[in-house]
Design the sequence.
């Protein structure tokens, strides 16, 4: 978790910070294959992966918050019926 915090600090602060990580050899080999194909550095790959992971965590937290809101205050019958005529259901 401290790695994510360090990345957030680097993003917010506008400067880059060097961090040390321990990774499995197989993982490093896979990363190296990918970064060569993409033409980017390991660091750029890691920054993108961390940003993506942080975004996923934030999205999941927001979804859970949304879900909890409906559990604590469920929609009332007919609350959204005004929008029913606007809905389009596409059948596949």
Sequence:
């Amino acid at each position: 978790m401290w790695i994510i915090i360090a990345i957030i600090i680097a993003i917010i602060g506008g400067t880059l910070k060097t961090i040390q990580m321990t990774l499995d050899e197989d993982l490093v080999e896979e990363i190296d294959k990918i970064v060569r194909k993409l033409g980017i550095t390991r660091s750029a790959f890691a920054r993108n992966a961390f940003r993506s992971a942080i975004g996923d965590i934030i999205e999941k937290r927001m979804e859970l918050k949304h879900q909890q809101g409906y559990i604590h205050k469920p929609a009332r019958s007919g609350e959204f019926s005004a929008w029913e005529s606007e809905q389009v259901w596409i059948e596949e």
Summary: The chain has a mean pLDDT of 84. DSSP finds three helices and no strands in the chain. The helical segments are 2-13, 25-38, 42-72.
